[in-house]
Write a structure and sequence with these properties.
The strands form 2 sheets. The protein has a 4-stranded mixed β-sheet. By secondary structure, the protein is α+β, with helices and mostly antiparallel strands. The radius of gyration is 22 Å and the shape is globular. The chain contains 11 helices and 8 strands. It has helices spanning 11-24, 32-41, 63-72, 84-97, 100-112, 226-242, 252-262, 269-296, 304-327, 352-358, 369-380; strands at 117-120, 136-140, 143-150, 161-167, 178-184, 190-195, 204-215, 219-220.
Length: 400
């Protein structure tokens, strides 16, 4: 049995707080941003966060109670799909490693959606082997001067801030010479260029950093400890991608199942068998994600999130492929190749062809499936790690 600190609100206490906020700030007449700010200040943003930082120190598992109350009242949300990187990756990292000043500065506008965040991790020569990154940060008084290139950066074209890892000591082994920063995306040295994808969109970007000045006050964690800080970000990212809460037959499998029911003329025995297998796999993945979220309610995300993200990518690709085959000629149509730079990824607002093409990226973004299999095998199953000859060599001496 878990003993909570005295004064920590329980389920009924949270319901009472929500009702009090709704009485004071009627969603029907309160401006959206004002309502979200009031909700944050009332500790009803992340109920498990500390008081004063959008929370009340309550159990994480009680967040669903709060969300259900606000949804029933027709209250506005903070558009979590638009600010997912901030919510799922930046916020827990700032909470864990940020100073009091950093938490006070960044968390409120992050949660309300006033400031969008992106992630400057991957590089053209450092994707799967992220620790080999070459973007340099050189100390200059109270600032760091950053120069390098990042790639596959979702939403960089809309972002106000970025979480950034850069090399601060090339004389150390690659994992130990990295530091973690919060980068101002409005700095004149930041250049964002679109990367057009197979879907026709450019939700991803490449980012060039030329003499970008970052105050040391915007460093998260100790100098040289950036790899450990980044692990917090990555573990939360994988849970956010693969462990989303969805209802039974939700997500992509629900779209295919609905087509199967509505269009019996498309059915074949082979497609029926494949649909049943993928339906079962989707349900197993959904229930596993629920179990991981319950574990997360009493601790920090671990390597299990890598397994969820791995399953998410495989299922999305297989289900979208099945949908295209099920639809026959209709599955080959593609509605719009117009070059756009969207704020969110919408798997369900487009046609089957879009879902099929966009799902190809699921096994790359958020950690490639190959790397995630290594993490699962080594850190979940306890299998021997692959031999690595570069772990103790200085980064500057590694072949590139």
């Amino acid at each position: 049995m878990t003993t909570e600190p005295a004064g920590t609100p329980d389920e009924e206490g949270l319901r009472h707080r929500v009702r009090a906020l709704l009485d004071e700030h009627d969603p029907a007449s309160t401006e959206r941003l004002a309502f979200l700010r009031a909700r944050f200040d009332a500790g009803l943003a992340w109920v498990h966060y500390p008081e004063g930082l959008g929370g009340l120190g309550a159990r994480r598992s009680l967040q669903g109670v709060v969300e259900a109350e606000f949804t029933a009242a027709g209250a506005p949300d903070n558009e979590p799909r638009r600010i997912g990187i901030g919510l799922g990756m930046a916020a827990p990292t700032v909470l864990t490693y940020g100073t009091d000043e950093q938490k006070a500065r960044f968390l409120r506008p992050l949660w309300t959606g006033e400031e969008v965040w992106c992630q400057l991790f991957s590089e053209p020569g450092a994707g799967s082997d992220l620790a080999s990154l070459g973007t340099r940060a050189v100390r200059d008084g109270d600032d760091w001067v950053v120069t390098g290139q990042k790639v596959w950066t979702s939403n960089a074209h809309n972002a106000r801030w970025a979480i950034l890892i850069a090399r601060t000591d090339p004389d150390l082994p690659k994992h130990r010479g990295i530091s973690y920063f919060v980068c101002d995306m409005t700095d004149p040295g930041v250049e964002v260029r679109p990367l057009r994808q197979i879907t026709g969109e450019a939700e991803f970007n490449e980012v060039f950093l030329t003499g970008v000045r970052i105050p040391d006050a915007h460093r998260l964690g100790a100098v040289g400890d950036g790899w450990r800080v980044a692990q917090t970000t990555l573990m939360n990212e994988r849970v956010a991608i693969g462990g989303a809460s969805i209802p039974r037959e939700g997500g992509m499998i629900g779209t295919v199942a609905a087509t199967w029911r509505e269009r019996p003329e498309l059915r074949t025995p082979d497609l029926h068998d494949r649909l049943l297998r993928l339906w079962v796999d989707s349900e197993v993945s959904r229930l596993t994600a629920e179990r991981v979220r319950q574990q997360l309610a009493v601790g920090a995300p671990g390597p299990e999130g890598s397994g969820l993200k791995l399953a998410f990518a495989r299922l999305n690709q297989q289900i979208s492929g099945l949908e295209v085959e099920l639809l026959g000629e209709d599955g080959l149509r593609y509605s719009d190749w117009t070059m756009t730079r969207p704020e969110t990824v919408d798997f369900f607002g487009r046609d089957a062809g879009y879902r099929y093409l966009r799902a190809k990226g699921n096994s790359i973004e958020g950690g490639t499936s190959e790397i995630l299999r290594n993490i699962v095998s080594e850190r979940v199953l306890g299998l021997p790690s692959e031999p690595r000859t570069d772990k103790d060599a200085a980064w500057k001496d590694l072949p590139r």
